[in-house]
């Protein structure tokens, strides 16, 4: 196992690996194409590379990733500082297209954890996975939802909250899992039960759990800190692209061009925070179409 | 098999050209002229400098070769024929459905191809990763040879790689630049100005050698100098002509990626079809050095 950094290891914490294993750490400086290319070369020699930078800047190396897929290379990428939730640094630093980019690669795996234990498990899982693996991480510290012994198989999901009375399923990943849980909590006070699904495996996607949620609740709301095209919402829709009736479906995603603001303000103005999710649920359940 | 003489190498280079023309003529597409410019470079590299056990592509002591100018795949496949890896009949399947001989080489079908190429400006960057593995992790002494086109040196990624390799002092990395002066649409930015490339590479800490890429002796000397250079990567800047050897297409614009109009005459001009064989030298026995550590990961509760 080797790690490559694009001169942001203090932010991504790849520096922790560098400290423990300096001989297997490769500093590539601010040259993301070269970092990915070097990872492909190391993979060709039989090593298992993890190359990390900000999710936003990995998009620069897309042609190298595309060619790595042609080579059938086994390599792992970690994109940090994903989404508007990074806050004040503004849109130039926000990875908002990365899920679409990595999902589109042939035979890729795309994972998006929401807490520390899930992240550590999924990082390890990627090592055994053939092809191009991508793990998307969040800048801010998020609450720990899962115990250290929990397992997170690729292609799975976690139903974090559910009951027989659920009237809608909230499908989230990463930072929006915590917003969805907060929204579900708020909605119990007005008698609306919500299921919350942590869709940490964005590709492949847990079709069975999504179909079951659709059958039982009739309505899915996806919430993602990403552009609406090619991300979590599209991944969920694929579970219903087999000819079966499509559930009522609402997707919350980043549709505007963000500026500088606090992480909380960013989530609010993008319409993907707990309040926006709760409002979307109420609109559906109280005013629209859910029986 | 004894090492071929310079005269024999020149004939092998002609065979690589002939087979490149035959393959692209049969396919009705492909890049014969881009293959013809690098024929001597390939012939000299394979017979006298690259060390590789073809029966064991995974041998840790094997030198690695990347055809960064992946569109010159006919040259690569012609070399495979000369090495006995591919039958002459199979050359006719070039670019056809189900053939191992794809338009641009990929490791999916051919075990001797290290990485897929064809998107220009990627071979050298990936070669840096392989050279880093050899130098810092495997320590088995293999070299990474990357055959680049001159036109692809306009890609910024090539210069990211040049700086990375220079900074890491990768003397196990050798870039061969086939400076044939012509890109797809016309002349390159620097034409045959080898010094323009040398200045840039030297600024990144590279050693450079300039040579006539059609003179097998000069190419041999240049590769030997590259192999004996310590502490720096080396670039062999070879002055070549696109479509070399066939008057109808040599050094002419507008012929990139086009089969020759008169392949039979061209083959005649190059000395006809032949079936010369070459051998690659075996790698030295490799000694593997492993650093193994173990530890326990404490997860937050």
Characteristics of this structure?
heterodimer, A: 291 residues, alpha/beta, five-stranded mixed beta sheet, 12 helices, B: 301 residues, five-stranded parallel beta sheet, 10 helices, 5 strands, 36% helix, globular
Give a structural overview.
The complex is a heterodimer of chains A (291) and B (301). In chain A, helix 3 packs parallel to helix 5. Chain A is 37% helix and 19% strand. Chain A has a seven-stranded mixed sheet, with helices on both faces. Chain A has a five-stranded mixed sheet with strand order 7-9-8-11-12, with helices on both faces. Chain A has helices at 9-12, 14-20, 32-44, 55-58, 62-71, 98-103, 116-127, 175-188, 207-217, 232-237, 263-270, 274-287, and strands at 2-5, 25-27, 49-54, 75-80, 109-111, 132-136, 158-161, 168-172, 194-198, 201-203, 219-223, 248-252. Chain A contains twelve helices and twelve strands. Chain A is of the alpha/beta class and 291 residues long. In chain A, strand 11, helix 10 (232-237) and strand 12 (248-252) form a beta-alpha-beta unit. Chain B has 301 residues and is of the alpha/beta class. Helices cover 36% and strands 10% of the residues of chain B. A five-stranded parallel sheet of chain B has the order 1-2-3-5-4, sandwiched between helices. Chain B starts with 5 loop residues before the first helix and ends in a 32-residue tail after the last helix. Mean pLDDT of chain B is 94; it is low at 290-295. At the A-B interface, helix 3, helix 5 and helix 7 of A face helix 6 and helix 7 of B.
């Amino acid at each position: 196992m080797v790690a490559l950094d694009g001169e942001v290891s203090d932010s991504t914490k790849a520096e922790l690996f560098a400290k423990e294993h300096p001989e297997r750490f490769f500093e590539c400086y601010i040259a993301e194409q070269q970092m990915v290319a070097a990872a492909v070369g190391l993979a060709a020699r039989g090593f298992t590379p993890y190359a990390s930078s900000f999710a936003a800047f990995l998009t620069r190396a897309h042609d190298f990733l595309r060619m790595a897929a042609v080579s059938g290379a086994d390599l792992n990428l970690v994109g940090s500082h994903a989404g508007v939730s990074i806050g004040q640094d503004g849109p130039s630093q926000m990875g908002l297209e990365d899920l679409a980019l990595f999902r589109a690669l042939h035979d890729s795996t795309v994972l998006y954890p929401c807490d520390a234990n899930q992240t550590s498990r999924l990082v390890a899982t990627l090592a055994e996975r053939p092809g191009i693996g991508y793990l998307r991480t969040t800048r801010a510290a998020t609450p720990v939802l899962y115990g250290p012994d929990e397992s997170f198989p690729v292609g799975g999901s976690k139903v974090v909250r559910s009951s027989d009375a659920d009237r809608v399923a909230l499908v989230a990943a990463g930072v929006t899992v915590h917003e969805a849980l907060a929204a579900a909590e708020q909605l119990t006070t007005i008698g609306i039960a919500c299921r919350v699904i942590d869709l940490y495996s964005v590709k492949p996607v847990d079709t069975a759990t999504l179909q079951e949620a659709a059958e039982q609740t009739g309505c899915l709301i996806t919430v993602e800190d990403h552009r609406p095209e090619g991300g979590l919402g599209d991944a969920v829709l694929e579970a219903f692209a087999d000819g079966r009736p499509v559930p009522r479906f609402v997707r919350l995603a980043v549709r505007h061009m963000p500026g500088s603001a606090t992480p909380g303000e960013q989530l609010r103005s993008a319409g993907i925070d707990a309040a926006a999710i709760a409002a979307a649920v109420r609109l559906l359940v109280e005013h629209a179409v859910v029986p | 098999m004894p090492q071929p003489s310079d005269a024999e190498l020149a004939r092998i280079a002609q065979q690589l050209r002939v087979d490149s023309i035959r393959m692209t003529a049969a396919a009705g597409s492909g890049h014969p002229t881009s293959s013809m410019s690098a024929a001597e470079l390939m012939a000299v590299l394979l017979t006298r400098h690259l060390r590789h056990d073809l029966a064991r592509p995974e041998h840790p002591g094997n030198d690695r070769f990347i055809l960064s100018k992946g569109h010159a795949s006919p040259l690569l496949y012609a070399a495979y024929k000369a090495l006995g890896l591919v039958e002459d009949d199979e050359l006719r399947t070039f670019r056809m459905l189900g053939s191992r001989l794809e338009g641009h080489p990929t490791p999916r079908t051919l075990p001797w191809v290290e990485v897929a190429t064809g998107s220009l400006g990627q071979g050298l960057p990936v070669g840096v990763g392989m050279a880093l593995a050899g130098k810092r992790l495997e320590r088995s002494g293999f070299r990474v040879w990357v055959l680049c086109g001159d036109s692809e040196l306009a890609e910024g990624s090539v210069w990211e790689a040049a700086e990375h390799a220079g900074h890491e002092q990768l003397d196990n990395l050798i870039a061969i630049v086939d400076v044939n002066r012509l890109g797809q649409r016309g002349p390159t930015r620097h034409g045959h100005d080898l010094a323009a490339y040398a200045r840039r590479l030297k600024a990144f800490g590279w050693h450079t050698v300039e040579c006539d890429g059609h003179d097998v002796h000069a190419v041999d000397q240049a590769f030997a100098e590259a192999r004996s250079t310590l502490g720096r990567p080396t670039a062999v800047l070879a002055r070549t002509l696109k479509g070399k050897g066939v008057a109808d297409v040599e050094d002419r614009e507008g012929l990139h990626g086009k089969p020759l109009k008169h392949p039979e005459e061209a083959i005649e001009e190059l000395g006809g079809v032949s079936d010369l064989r070459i051998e690659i030298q075996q790698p030295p026995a490799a000694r593997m050095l492993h650093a193994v550590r173990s530890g326990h990961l404490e997860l937050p509760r």
